[in-house]
């Protein structure tokens, strides 16, 4: 794989006494959607949080655009062009939708064309623009969480389970927005448990188990091979 935008080399991450990541190797190509898959608790979220600097690798390297960011502070990593959508959404409930978005636009005022695109992708955000984020529904809060990462054009988006617990109609909205982002040429590393979404969006896939990467390849190959899915993750996409 030539010139990946992101590369993890032998990354170990410990949290307290727990050894979560145990030598993770990962490459994320430019302009594509890379899926990070696996059972619950195998280290997917820890991988994303290690990349963004919330947790520190105890061994190994995290490389972004060829630069070692393993020990770089999180705010600096964000300014380098990496957007992060955490599983817990990370929005400010006592601020309005507008205030949440403005805070995320670290470069200054929100670009009007970018905001129009976000409103097209997530119409409820325009409707509730002046409302406190805490009053939004769960699906609307997730829209806001993703929109905050999209408010500025990033080189790389790290997105952790954006469709978790959402109704099918909201999942479809999320998938369309991520497809639009992909079509704009964005590089995305996506943790996703909804395999219909993973299969529709993913270009490549990496499967984790017990803090290690156990398989890497084309998403289309994984999506069409029920036996491989069962062996790697204990389930078949055909039933999800």
TrEMBL record:
The keyword tRNA-binding does not apply. SMART domains: AAA. GO terms for molecular function: ATP binding. Keywords: Amino-acid transport, ATP-binding, Nucleotide-binding, Transport. Residues 6-235 form the ABC transporter domain. The keyword GTP-binding does not apply. PROSITE patterns: ABC_TRANSPORTER_1 (PS00211), ABC_TRANSPORTER_2 (PS50893). CDD domains: ABC_TM1139_LivF_branched. It comes from the Bacteria. InterPro entries: AAA+_ATPase, ABC_transporter-like_ATP-bd, ABC_transporter-like_CS, BCAA_Transport_ATP-bd_LivF, P-loop_NTPase. PANTHER family: ABC TRANSPORTER ATP-BINDING PROTEIN (PTHR43820:SF2), HIGH-AFFINITY BRANCHED-CHAIN AMINO ACID TRANSPORT ATP-BINDING PROTEIN LIVF (PTHR43820). Belongs to the ABC transporter superfamily. This is ABC transporter ATP-binding protein. It comes from Aliisedimentitalea scapharcae.
């Amino acid at each position: 794989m030539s010139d990946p935008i992101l590369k993890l080399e032998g990354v170990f991450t410990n949290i307290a006494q727990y050894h979560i990541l145990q030598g993770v190797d990962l490459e994320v190509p430019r302009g594509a959607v890379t899926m990070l898959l696996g059972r619950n608790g195998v280290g997917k979220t820890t991988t994303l949080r290690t990349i963004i600097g919330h947790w520190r690798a105890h061994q190994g390297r995290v490389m972004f655009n060829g630069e070692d960011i393993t020990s770089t502070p999180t705010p600096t990593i964000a300014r380098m062009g990496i957007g992060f959508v955490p599983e817990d959404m990370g929005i400010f409930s006592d601020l309005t939708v507008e205030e949440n978005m403005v805070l995320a636009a670290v470069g200054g005022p929100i670009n009007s064309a970018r905001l129009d695109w976000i409103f097209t992708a997530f119409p409820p955000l325009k409707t509730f623009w002046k409302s406190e984020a805490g009053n939004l529904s769960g699906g609307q809060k997730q829209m806001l969480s993703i929109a905050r990462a999209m408010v500025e054009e990033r080189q790389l988006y790290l997105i952790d389970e954006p469709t978790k617990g959402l109704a099918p109609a909201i999942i479809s909205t999320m998938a369309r927005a991520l497809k639009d982002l992909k079509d704009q040429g964005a590089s995305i590393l996506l943790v996703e448990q909804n395999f219909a979404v993973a299969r529709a969006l993913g270009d490549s896939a990496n499967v984790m188990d017990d803090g290690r990467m156990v398989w890497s390849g084309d998403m289309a190959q994984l999506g069409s091979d029920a036996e491989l899915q069962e062996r790697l993750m204990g389930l078949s996409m055909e039933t999800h």
